[in-house]
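Problem: given the chain below (392 residues), write out its structure.
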Amino acid sequence: MQYRRFGRTHIQMPVFSCGGMRYQFKWQDVPAWQIPRNNQKNLEATIRRAVEVGINHIETARGYGTSEYQLGKVLPTLPREQIIVQTKLNPSDNTREFQQKFEQSLKNLRLDYVDLLAIHGINDPESLQQSVRPGGCVEIVQKLQAQGKVRFLGFSTHGPTDIIVQAIATNLFDYVNLHWYYINQNNWAAIAAANRHDMGVFIISPSDKGGMLYKPPQKLVDLCAPLSPIVFNNLFCLSHSQVHTLSVGAARPQDFDEHLKTLALLDLADEILPPILARLEQAAIASLGESWAKTWHVGLPKHSDTPGDVNIPVILWLRNLAIAYDMIEYAKVRYNLLGNGGSWFPGANAANINQLNLQHCLKNSPHATNIPRILHEAHQLLGGAAVKRLSQ
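Solution.
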C-alpha cells in the first residue's frame, strides 16, 4: 500500500479507503438479531482483508443503516492506533439531535473516539448554513473535539462546485469528501481550493458514481486497454498529487483485488495515461463531433435558472457518455434519478422539454438552437422508470 499525507491532519492516509455503504445488511437500523450471520461474517472478512493489504481507513456514516453497528463488532478487535475510522452525520438545525446522533454513532462503533467526523451532505446553501452558523453543527463538533471524541472535522458533498468552494473558504474543515474522476472533472476548482487550505481530499465512489466501472461496456474496456476501466480511473485520479485517497465501496473481500493492481503503476502514470486519454478524447470527438465534444458545456444554465428545473448540464453529460463510450446503463440509472435525488442529485429530467421555452436560459450557449432537440433525444434514449437513491 502507498500512503499520502492527508492535509493538515498529518494522517498518513492509504491511497485507497474502505467505504462502508455496500457491505451492510440494511439501509435502515434494525434489531441485531435480524442481521444474518453470513452477512456479518462477510463484513468482518472484508474489513480484515482491507487491513491486511494496508487499507486501514474505514469509512461509514450514520445514514448507512446497520453499517456502523456491524462495524462495531469488528473494529474493537483491531489495534486502535493502527486504524483510521471516519463516520458522517447529516447537518441539522437541531444541534441537540445532531449531537445525539453522534453519540449513537460512537456507541454503534464501540469506540471512544473517531479519527474523522464529516458533516454529511453539504450540498446547498441551507446545509452549509446549518453547519457553519454560530451555534451550528461545526460548533458542536468542536466541543466533541475538546472532549477527545473527534480528532478531525471534514465534510462530504454532492453539491455544485461553488457551494463546495464556499465551505472550504470558511477554513473550518480539515478535509473534504467529494466527487472527481475521469468522466466528471467539474470539481477540480474545489480540489485546488482544498489544497490551498491544506485539507485532505477524499474522492467519493470513483468506481460506481464514476461510471459503474465494475461492469463496463466493451467499448470502454477497449479504450482503456491495457488497463481495466477501474485501474485506469484510479491511476488518472491518483496521478494528481492533490488527491489523497479513493473510496473503494467493497461489498466482499475480493473487491479490493482489481484496485490493488493500480499500486505498481503509480510511478508510471506519465507514460501509461497519455495514449489512453488520447483514445478516449478521439472516441468522443468521433461520436459527438469535435465542436460539440469540446464546447457542449459552454454557457449552460444551472437547473435552478431553467424552466421546469431541468438539469441541462447533467442531461447532456449523461447523453454524451452514452453515445461516446456506450455507457448507456450508467447514464440511464443517473438520468432516471433526476427528480428523485433531492440535493444529492438535483433538478428534473427532460420528460417535459417540448413544453418549455428555453430560449432565454440558453442565450449564452453556442448550441442554443440545437439543445432542445438534443434534450428530447436524450430523454428518448435514457428515459425509463424512476430511480431512487440507495438510502431510500
